Amino acid sequence: MTASPHAPVQTKLIDGKQRYYEPAPEGMDVEAFRQVVTSRRSVRKFTTKPIPKAVVDDCLDLAMLAPCSSGLQPWDFYVVRSADKKAKLVKACMSQWAAKSAAELIVCVARTDRVNEFSKKMMRDWPMPEVPPLVKRYYQMIPYNYMPGPLNSFARVKKAAISVGGIFTPLPRGPFTEDEVKLWAAKSAALACENLVLAFRAHGYDTCMMEGYDDARVSKLLNLPDGAFPIMVVAAGERSDDGVFWPQVRFERELFIHEV
Question: Which of 125, 167, 207, 227 has the fewest CB atoms within 10 Å around its CB?
């Protein structure tokens, strides 16, 4: 998918001002979506049927439409096609069945090292003729907000200042430290992973989102730069007849849904 940052946009007069307008589509099929969600399972064994490249590419494109913090898209997807690298990745995934039998193995990586670069890119690629001053200022400040500094030195100063200011008014309490920034990136990347597996299910294929792997070996295998770290390996393929090992277990709704 190629971005077209300055494509014509639709506007509408709202409260006396011309605003960007993107109406919600009508006729959405909630039952078809429900079938995709409820039929998604963690499949541990796949058939030998390959997945067409066009399907894989479409699923990756849909993954990248996931919501992300400040639109910075802190993710990468590594589709491991090399036979040698795939064998090493399977071993790094503890040689579990999902990895060994998958038609495709995709490593989902979170990135914290491109905040400055992508903040500038956001302003260059802004989809309207002009970047509003507040938006421009926001993206100019983001790199400083997410910069922990050596040994989290900047983070400690910012946390102290925010703690004082937060006494008087609501303020964002991070991310400041290196670990907080990593969590920030991982949250957005995980949303993209959910899009990815649902897209495969909608195409008739299945997945297993694996966290059981040696992340040091996976990082070395992919030659990941500093500030990039794997958050999961997605195995994908056609579900084998015995690919789902047991019925899905979900605890009582009352344990998780709260009205306050």
Answer: 167
CB atoms within 10 A of CB 182: 19
Task: Please answer whether residues 155 and 173 qualify as being in contact, where contact means their C-beta atoms are separated by less than 8 angstroms.
Answer: no
Name the strand (E) or helix (H) holding 172: none
Q: Residue 53, SS3?
A: helix
The pTM assigned to this predicted structure is: 0.91
- Cα distances from 246 to residues 28, 97, 160, in angstroms, run 32, 15, 49
Residue type for position 73: Q
Task: Write out pLDDT tens, residues 161-179.
Answer: 888 888 888 888 878 899 9
pLDDT at 163: 86
Q: Which residues contact 47 (CB under 8 A, 6 or more apart)?
A: 101, 237, 238, 239, 240
Determine contact, residues 74/228, Cβ cutoff 8 Å. no
- Amino acid type, 113: D
Per-residue pLDDT reduced to its tens digit, 50-72 = 999 999 999 999 999 999 999 99
